[in-house]
Amino acid sequence: MDETPGPRRRSVRDWIVDVAMVVLAFLFGLTALVDPPHEPTPPPNSTVAVTVELAVLVAGCAALWWRRRWPLQVAGVLMAASAVFVMVGGAMLVALFSLAVHRPPRTSLPVFGVGVLAAWANISIHPDQNAPDLVMFLLSVAMMAALTGWGISVRHRRELVDSLRERAVHAEGEARLRAERVQHQVRESIAREIHDVLGHRLSMLSVHAGALEYRPDASEDEVRRSAQVIRESAHQALQDLREVIGVLRAPVGELPQPTMADLRQLVAEADHVGASVELSEDYEGSVPERTGRAAYRIVQEALTNVRKHAPGSDTRVRVSGEPGGELRVEVANGPSPDPGAEESHPAGSGQGLVGLAERVSLASGRLEHGPTADGGWRLRAWLPWPT
Hints:
ATP-binding, membrane, alpha+beta, transferase, 387 residues, rod-shaped, two-component regulatory system, Heat Shock Protein 90, disordered N terminus, EC 2.7.13.3, five-stranded mixed β-sheet
C-alpha cells in the first residue's frame, strides 16, 4: 500500500463509501443538538455558538472528501477542531479511521494520542451535567481506540492481500520460466537425438552416393551393392526418424533407447560401408542403461565423423572397464587412403562433438579428442560405472 499521498481516480465503490462517511459524520454531529451539554452558566449568545458549531460541522464533513489524498493533514485539523467544538467529533472519528487505514501505525498511533488530549480538552470546555467527566472521557477514548484498531486491521488485511497477490504473480512468473527451461531442455534433447540417430544413417548414404558419383568406372556388382546399402540405410533412417518423432507423441520414458547390446550391430553396419572397423570389448558384467546409452552414442558419433572426414580409413573401437570404476570408450582411425575423398562430403558444423561433450558431461564423465601422430584421429571417453 502506498504511503505517499497521490491523486487517484475514485471508483464507484469509493464514491459510495465517501458519501456514506460524510453523511454519517454529519448525522453524528447533529446528535449534539438533541441533548446539548448543560453549561454551568448558559451563555447569552447560545444561538451564535450553535451557528458556529454547525459551520464547523459542515466544514469538517467537507474536509473528509480529501481524507484519502491527505489523511494526516485532515485528521490533524479535525483533531484540533474537536478539542473546542462538539459537533465535529464524528468527522474527527472518520478521519482517524481513514488515517489508520492509509498510513502505518507509527503515524496513526501518535495522532491517536493527540486525540486523547483533544477529548480531555473538549470535556473540560463542555462538561456534561448528565454523566461524570471521567465516564465521558473514557467513552470518547474507547471510540477512538476502536476505530483506530479497526483501521489498522483493515490496513494489515489489505497489505496481506497485496502480498499474496504479488507472491502469486511471482510464482506464476517462476513457473513460466521453469516451463520454458524444461521446454528448452526437451528441445535440446530431441535435437541431440535427431543428430545422433539420423547423422549416422545419412553419413552412410553420403558415402555410397559419393562413391557412385566419383567412380563412374565402378563395376556392376559394386553399383548394385552401393544401391542396396543406400536403400537399406534410407529405410533404416526412416525407421529411426519415426522413433524420434515418437518422442513427441509418447509419454516420457516410453521410447526404447540403444544400449551396449546394440553396439556390435552398430559396428557391423559401419564395417559394411567399405572401411574396416574393429571392435574390442574388454569388460564383464552388465553395463548400466544410462552409461551404455552414452557409450553407444559416443561410438555412433565417432564413426559418423570418420565417414565424413576420413572415409575408407581403418578404425578401431575399444570398450573396456569394470563395475565400481569407469567404462572407457576409445575410437581411433588412421588417415584416409584417398585424401580427395573428403571433398565429396559436406563439411560438418562441429555440433556433433559439442553434443557429445554435453552428453558425457551429463553422465558425469570426461571426453578427449584430437589428431594422432600418423594423421588420424582419436576420441576417448571415461564414463562412471557404479556398482
